[in-house]
Amino acid sequence: MIVVLARLRLALLSAVIGAFGWGVSAAVAEATPLGTLSGTVTGIPTGAPRVVGVSAIDLSTGRIVTSVRATRSGAFSVSLPRGGYAIAITVTPVHGNAASATTGLTAVSLRAGQHRRNVRLTSRGSNRRRRRTHSAHAGSLKAAAAMRQESGATQPGVAFNVEPFSGATGELAVLNTGLEDMLITALGQQPPPCPNAQVANAHDRALIEQELNLAKGPLFDPEYVVHRNFIVPEVTVDGTLTNGPADQSVEYRVEIRDASTGTVFETIEGSIATGSILAEGGAMGELVSEIGRAICHRPRAYEVQIDVQGTATTAAYASSGTMLASILATSATKAPQLPSAWEGTGELEWSDLVFTPKVPQCLWSPQPASWPWSAKLAVVEPEMLHVEWESQGSTMAASTVECVDAPPIGGQGGPALIGIGPLSLTLPLTGGTQPLSGGLPAAGGGWSETGTLTVVPAQEPAG
């Protein structure tokens, strides 16, 4: 009988990623037949519905090889390459206090093509009381995302973890850790649509470091030696929950943040009826899709902002002004599809215009004017964002000059976007800032512009 290794301080370990899934394990998986682990989860409390998740974690790489839901009777079956695994069992009810969810962990090994049948895994492990914490790993989101191990090895993709939620109270308090459990399983079954690896949260990661002796159990083949080479998460998923009216629903605010700085780069809000929270698909499926999209840095919208200081100098006057404008570029692709292109339009106008006369007894007065501009953004390989923007019309500020004993004369030009660029550029999917410059020399002076174009992920307007 398989011995369950479950301890109070071992929180949900179905999110373990000790190292990346490339290397020996992947090669062996392709070259050898799969084995099977099947059986029954026992000790599932009767009565109210609950989700029973079964996750197989490769102990040599730490990767979640597969995640499934057990049936109502507790039956499960997973196909696995040869190797050593930690089988994590999580049980999450809809209602209950913070101690109502449990987890169990079992160490097991499989030979190539081996079939372990009628395995009985108990769900009566530890009650989980996890604290919400954040990773403190150095680094930031990269231009082309690259997952990194402690050894320094890298591979394209996004490394992320799911932290416990907070805020739910009373009979819904179990969802603070329960929703985390369900998301970890669901993101294993329905992974983000980009190269990725799911890693343990900060609290569990610290515990895993103390539990690398899991493979010393009697059913674990000594040849499967575990060498630590953790993956460093760069994106963290966490958030807050609020009880709905009469506890019939739970409202969520999921924050997708930079794991090293804690900076939130996208927020996902909504609610789920407690009666359907255990169901696969539906509102939970939409939430998983949106989290996967955000993890892959595919926001529903981008804000494109231009900030330019311009000057114009002639023999008669000098002028200067600021052009500060933004566009919300949105995607025509709607959930659950992954957006890959965004467009937006807006208006440009000069502000803080100053005309300084060089001719005595003359005064220049700026006149209001605006011009349309647009931006188009698209995902290009390798996971970068191509941005094109353009203005229409002259974009030249205008003024009227009035001199003593002379009628007003309009059409006196001021700053303008003449020769400014680049108009086409490439940035990380997480956005960035591009310096802009332009100008045109002329007799007695000319035009000059300097500034920036900034692109950042943004929230799509409601409705």
Give a verbal description of the structure.
With 463 residues, the protein is mainly β. The chain folds into two domains: 272 residues, no CATH class; 158 residues. It is 10% helix and 46% strand. The chain contains four helices and 28 strands. The strands form seven sheets. A five-stranded antiparallel sheet has the order 3-2-5-6-8, covered by helices on one side. Helix 2 links the parallel strand 11 and strand 12.
Share of helical residues: under 10%
Oligomer: single chain
Total tally of structural domains: 2
Radius of gyration: 29 Å
Structure classification: mainly beta
Write down the overall geometry: elongated
Number of strands: 28
Topology:
Blueprint: H1 24-31, E1 35-42, E2 50-58, E3 64-69, E4 75-80, E5 83-93, E6 102-110, E7 115-122, E8 126-127, E9 146-149, E10 154-156, E11 158-162, H2 175-189, E12 196-199, H3 202-210, E13 231-232, E14 235-243, E15 249-258, E16 264-273, H4 282-295, E17 301-313, E18 317-330, E19 341-348, E20 350-357, E21 362-367, E22 371-380, E23 384-391, E24 398-403, E25 409-413, E26 424-428, E27 432-442, E28 445-458
Parallel strand pairs: 1-7, 11-12, 11-14
Antiparallel strand pairs: 1-4, 2-3, 2-5, 5-6, 6-8, 9-10, 9-13, 14-15, 15-16, 17-18, 17-28, 18-20, 19-22, 21-24, 22-23, 23-26, 24-25, 27-28
